[in-house]
Amino acid sequence: MNFLLETLQVLVLSVYFNLEAFLKLFIPSRKKSVVGELVLITGAGSGIGRLVALEFAPLGVSLVLWDISQEGNKETARLAKEKGARKVHTYVCDCSDKADVYRVADQVKREVGDVSILINNAGIVTGKKFMDAPDSLIEKTLEVNTMAHFWTYKAFLPAMMANNHGHLVSIASSAGLIGVSGLADYCASKFGAIGFAESVALEMLTAGKDGIKTTIVCPYFINTGMFDGCQTKWPRLLPILDPAYVAKKIVNAILTDQVYLLLPRAMYVLMAFKNILPVKLGMVLGAYFGALNFMDSFRGREKKDK
Ligand SMILES: NC(=O)c1ccc[n+]([C@@H]2O[C@H](COP(=O)([O-])OP(=O)(O)OC[C@H]3O[C@@H](n4cnc5c(N)ncnc54)[C@H](O)[C@@H]3O)[C@@H](O)[C@H]2O)c1
Question: What SUPFAM superfamilies does the record point to (predicted)?
């Protein structure tokens, strides 16, 4: 195809897809059926992982719950069964350990079957300024929040590719889109998770595996306990999110094959600003939104909450 023809094609498609996106603001997207799907959630023992499991419970899926905490995982399984889940399988897995991920993944494939919806949700936060953070915690953050995603993909993607069917979900963070003072290692891990998920999504498309869908989730602070103590400066513009609301939005995004989910909606505007405004104005806005001091009052989750 020559330059003029290809450029014209891109212009026509730009108009078409912009119009489509605009209409979708008013017309709710159709939800796909997930009956019979095998949904694996990492970090299912509390917070968002647990609530996403409970949202999936009545939808006719089989659930595979992974967590480092057996107690938390068992409680999620009990609640999921109460909510109508047909089959729930719990596994203790330390996602920071590649060998453990591969070992438990093999066990799941033998005992339950091929995972068709993979939700990489397990996450940790150091909550210290970079120079105060111990090397071991920095490494652990990268291992859980980013590298675990590599190993779960390696374990479960081959079956999805063979069937040209599946869904890869990355529970990342708005801290994976914009740097935050006091969250350097966490931001690095979430930027990494997003870059990884986006890149493999493109690999699937170029390999013709259009039956494998992807969803990348980037929420602002959620009231799960992980970021206890953190304050938001303008709660009306950037509220601390309700976990049940976030879980509903995540499952809705999966059911409608939404590729990116940013929460709250103001995050879409902030991201556009970050990319188009002069850097100095960006800093002024960062200070205005409190991004320089989000972590000043961080306490994190009390051990007993876990
Ligand atoms: N809470 C927030 O404000 C917030 C905001 C944006 C993104 N997120 C992300 O959402 C995800 C869920 O966060 P949450 O708020 O529900 O946190 P949470 O602490 O309530 O839950 C995290 C779960 O992961 C498990 N886990 C931790 N390390 C693990 C490991 N090595 N192997 C297996 N499981 C492990 C924990 O036991 C826990 O059950 C995380 O990836 C987090 O980074 C959270």
Answer: NAD(P)-binding Rossmann-fold domains
- Eight-class DSSP state of 66: E
Ligand 1 atom index nearest CA of 143:
31
Domains of the chain with bracketed CATH = 31-305 (3.40.50.720)
What global pTM score does this model have? 0.95
Quote the ligand 1 centre to 20 CA distance (angstroms).
34
Tens-digit pLDDT profile for residues 208-246: 999 999 999 999 999 999 999 998 888 888 899 999 999
Point out which residues pair with 218 in neighbouring strands: 262
Over residues 75-97, the pLDDT tens digits come to: 999 999 999 998 999 999 999 99
Q: Of all helices (H) and strands (E), which one includes residue 32?
A: none
Residues 6+ apart with CB under 8 A from 212: 157, 160, 161, 164, 165, 166, 167, 168, 204
